[in-house]
Amino acid sequence: MTDSWPPWSDDLFLDALRDAYFPGAQKAVVECEGVRVRTLLRGRNAVSGVWQFPIYLEPIRGILEPIVEVPYLADVVVGITTATEPGPPGATVAPFVSWRDFASFEAYLATRVPPPGLDSPSRVAQKARRLRRELGPFELKLIDDDPAVFETLIRWKAAQFRRQGRLSVLSLKQNVDFYWELRRQGIFTATTLKVGDRLLAGEIGYRRCKRHLARLTVYDPSLAHYSPGSIMHLETLRASFEAGDEEFDFLGGGETYKFIYATHARWLGDLGAEPRGIRLRRTVRQRLGRAVAQRRGYTTYKEGVRRASRALRGLLPG
Q1: How many CB atoms within 10 Å of residue 134?
Q2: 3-class SS at 198?
Q3: pLDDT 10s digits, 266-277
Q4: Is residue 302 part of a domain?
Q5: What is the DSSP track for 33-60?
Q6: Which end of the chain has the smaller Cβ count within 10 Å, N or C?
Q7: pTM
Q8: Which of these, 4, 291, 303, 50, lies nearest to 169 by C-alpha position?
Q9: DSSP 139-183
């Protein structure tokens, strides 16, 4: 495996992605509109915009052979700015923290000005002290290998999506199986916040190339009044800094809470012309997702997921 590849382009991850969703695909360096990335190739089309497991593709510098020209790439990093600067028109944001400019974690915290209505790090620290007083001392474990913890975090996240009436990729067994395969391969690990043996909150993520990539964060909803999710974010950031990481990556999505801590942003855009077949599959998937999201009640929700799965089977890869 080549250590210089970006996290979502290395051999171990691409092999797992191929086996789960794109049997027969080949790893390749592809180029579209002068930008080169490493991903999977199926016929003339590069694998990008993976809805089952959203990732982004980072441009690769230098001359790499062989290179395959492709007509379209989705979710490519098309720019990097500070967290307060606008990105290219039409691009979506993927916030991250760059630790390179900070001599200490305290120096970093001193620069944080939260968006209106959100707690500052000092306010989160106050909540952490309250949690210690009322529940006991907590411990953050940067890497927790307990499989029961991994299962709990996935179950909590799926339940969170159900409460919100949202169609979740974790409602599909194939996607949950993929998370477990990434864990088996040593790609995914869990970070946990506990009081004794009691799990308060956790994160499933990927640590590679001095980068901490946070894929899934969730907390025990019965403890929401303690804000364990906010405490988890603060303590995980501290652990990332102390571990010598260069970045803490929140991945794609412009959720406001990420900008309490983000110092920079990657901007993700599309290159080339989207092939008609890919556009059709994406449109069908989006319409089914909106139809399910508008329904109420868990029974109806599950039925909607089953119908969406049946409708998409055979249309979407994997």
Answers
A1: 9
A2: strand
A3: 999 999 987 766
A4: no
A5: TTEEEEEEEETTEE----SSS---B---
A6: N
A7: 0.85
A8: 50
A9: EEEEEE--HHHHHHHHHHHHHHHHHTT---GGGSHHHHHHHHHHH
